[in-house]
Amino acid sequence: MKKRAVVTGITGQDGAYLAELLLDKGYTVYGTFRRTSSVNFWRIESLGIQDHPELHLVEYDLTDLGSSLTLLRDAEPDEVYNLAAQSFVGASFNQPEATTHTNGLGTLHLLEAIRLTDRKIKYYQASTSEMFGKVQAIPQKEDTPFYPRSPYGVSKLFAHWMTMNYRESYGIFGCCGILFNHESPLRGREFVTRKVTDAAARIRSGKLDVLLLGNLDAKRDWGYAKEYVDGMWRMLQAEKPDNYVLATHRTETVREFVDMAFRAAGYELRFEGMAQGEVAIDRKTGKVLVKIDPKFYRPAEVELLIGDPSHARKTLGWEARTTLEQLCAMMVEADLQRISEGRSF
Ligand code: NDP
Ligand code: GDR
């Protein structure tokens, strides 16, 4: 019998990669998308899976309980991967309630749907390193105390504890993947890595003069998304449900990533000035290519993230393999290629 999986948020970065992985493994996949005024299937199209016979695209909204009940009744899944979310931390400060509704109550809807329809369904919850926020230990692991710093982080912490509560109360096989930042050429362009690689490629192609950024001092543990979705799948194949950190155990500043990306696009940058007056200058021409715009600063910042993935390595045999240099070069190359072909996606 083919295994059946629901992937919420198939139009997002992780949803697209996970659907590809599950289809490759022979699953039947029910991938959910939201009704919007314009379709948003560019990621599954770029992976070439949109017409796969075992992929069913289902209209769905996390904020609607009935929608979750219908989804599980119709798909009868063995596994549910809840990847759908308002996932942009910056936007969560402007839309705290909508973010909480989707990420917090939306998760509860799915858990309730599992409790009410079939408690044997295995459930993956997309938890996040943002829950560590103002970090209480370095590096961060599964039992590091949480201290979220954004409405996004708080909403995800609610979902994290709800998943654990349903595991303990009803015996539901619920796993929380505490994933650190993971990126790829399919990353949304509002997130800093893709914003930088897209801009470096556009500057190289003469389509942009200067890139505006916020806090360059923030440090992140960045890995490759394709490897992280494999970790999600491994969690649901384990003997017991548990929480796992997926990370690379390396941290770099946003400034370092900017430097790396522009190098991959053929520039050598010199950083000058301090704080919000800092600029990055092309050493060859003396042109300013990067400036700070205070509007990209957040009301509260997560300064430093670095994860300890040893539990996932020991229990799941999972390890991040792609280096940040390789990931960054892959993203810049994909953006240069896309621009040279005149494609927007
Ligand atoms: P994306 O922002 O790329 O994708 C989010 C998906 O959720 C999209 O398909 C989006 O649909 C969908 N969605 C948003 N709101 C709703 C809603 N109300 N109902 C149904 N679907 C909705 O995120 P990623 O793929 O990067 O991340 C996947 C998950 O992992 C998210 O939960 C994120 O918070 C979490 N996470 C991500 C990390 C990362 O570094 N990428 C790290 C840790 C956790 P639409 O296309 O219509 O907007
Ligand atoms: P993050 O990712 O908030 O870590 O959340 P993002 O790429 O948005 O920010 C990373 C860091 O870069 C700083 N920064 C900027 N960020 C953006 N987006 N735009 C800018 O111009 C800019 N300048 C500096 C930010 O302040 C921040 O410190 C991501 C999301 O995928 C979440 O869903 C996920 O849970 C976490 O990663 C782990």
Layout of helices and strands, plus pairs?
Layout lengths: L3 E5 L4 H12 L3 E6 L8 H5 L8 E5 L5 H11 L3 E4 L6 H6 L1 H22 L4 E7 L22 H20 L3 E6 L2 E2 L8 H13 L6 E3 L5 E2 L2 E2 H13 L5 E4 L5 E2 H11 L4 E4 L6 E4 L5 E5 L17 H7 L7 H17 L5
Parallel strand pairs: 1-2, 1-4, 2-3, 4-5, 5-6, 6-11, 7-10, 8-15
Antiparallel strand pairs: 9-12, 13-14, 14-15
The structure holds NADPH dihydro-nicotinamide-adenine-dinucleotide phosphate and guanosine-5'-diphosphate-rhamnose.
The site of NADPH dihydro-nicotinamide-adenine-dinucleotide phosphate has 27 residues, from α1, α5 and β5.
Quick rundown:
The chain is an alpha/beta fold and about 350 residues long.
Task: Describe this protein's structure.
The chain is α/β, with parallel strands linked by helices and 345 residues long. The chain has two domains: 4-184 and 222-250 and 304-321, NAD(P)-binding Rossmann-like Domain (Rossmann fold); 192-217 and 253-301 and 328-340, Alpha-Beta Complex (UDP-galactose 4-epimerase, domain 1). Helix content is 40%, strand content 18%. The protein is built from eleven helices and 15 strands. It has helices at 13-24, 42-46, 65-75, 89-94, 96-117, 151-170, 192-204, 225-237, 254-264, 310-316, 324-340, and strands at residues 4-8, 28-33, 55-59, 79-82, 122-128, 174-179, 182-183, 211-213, 219-220, 223-224, 243-246, 252-253, 269-272, 279-282, 288-292. A seven-stranded parallel β-sheet has the order 3-2-1-4-5-6-11, sandwiched between helices. Strands 8-15-14-13 form a four-stranded mixed β-sheet. The longest helix is centred in the first third of the chain and has 22 residues, at 96-117. It is globular. The mean pLDDT is 98. The structure holds NADPH dihydro-nicotinamide-adenine-dinucleotide phosphate and guanosine-5'-diphosphate-rhamnose (GDR). NADPH dihydro-nicotinamide-adenine-dinucleotide phosphate binds next to α1, α5 and β5. The site of guanosine-5'-diphosphate-rhamnose has 22 residues, from α4 and α7. Keywords: Lyase, NADP. One of its GO terms (molecular function) is NADP+ binding. This is GDP-mannose 4,6-dehydratase.
